[in-house]
What we know:
By secondary structure, the protein is α/β, with parallel strands linked by helices.
Amino acid sequence: MKFPNELISLLASVQWMAALTGAGASQESGLRTFRDGQSGLWSQYKPEELASPEAFQRNPKLIWDWYAWRREAIKGVRPNPGHYALVQISRKVPGFTLITQNVDGLHAMAGSPEVIELHGNIHRVRCVRGDGVAGDWEEGPDGIGLCPKCGGFLRPDVVWLGEELPRAYLAAAFEASRKCEVFLSIGTSSIVQPAAALPYAARNRGARIIEINVEPTPLTPKTDHFLQGKSGEILPELFAAVWNRQIRG
Length: 249
């Protein structure tokens, strides 16, 4: 892809950047989106029947098993070139913040040192009674994870439908968005709130907005640059166009 000279010059000098990734970034690794991910036994359920506090209260075993199935499905998935390009960009931009709506952990697997995971991480669990977060756990006789501290049920450390995002993560995401000079929106529908408000927070403070997506979104008319295509292809090309040129110069 040929990039505008203005875009290359902008990125070559940027000191503060925020990047938000959505389901499209992981989909390029072969990971199905949340709403498209049901198959076989799980195809009979709607997402809200498997990803809400009410669903867990009604049938914790069903929900625990579904998330175990999802974790197993993710095991063979690996980061794509877009994930790795973001790692490289973070090493070039001093004030780089990576924010994601994805719960798959692929950014960390690619080597991103710090990621604001707005919707949590499917590889972690937390106690329903509030006794902390863990990456390892044991299951009780009924096959549901139990908290080692209080014996209560464990649940996936993800944000379910109807739940608020973790306040500290959301505050950090908005702070980075308001501080940045450039905001990258990558593979996100720009519909799901409050994440969809982040690029507007950046724009209101004078940041330039760059969107990378396979199709236009509600954000597209407000962007400074819309790069249509797969982020796994565009991001590596963009990195090479900007920073390889800068290094050679």
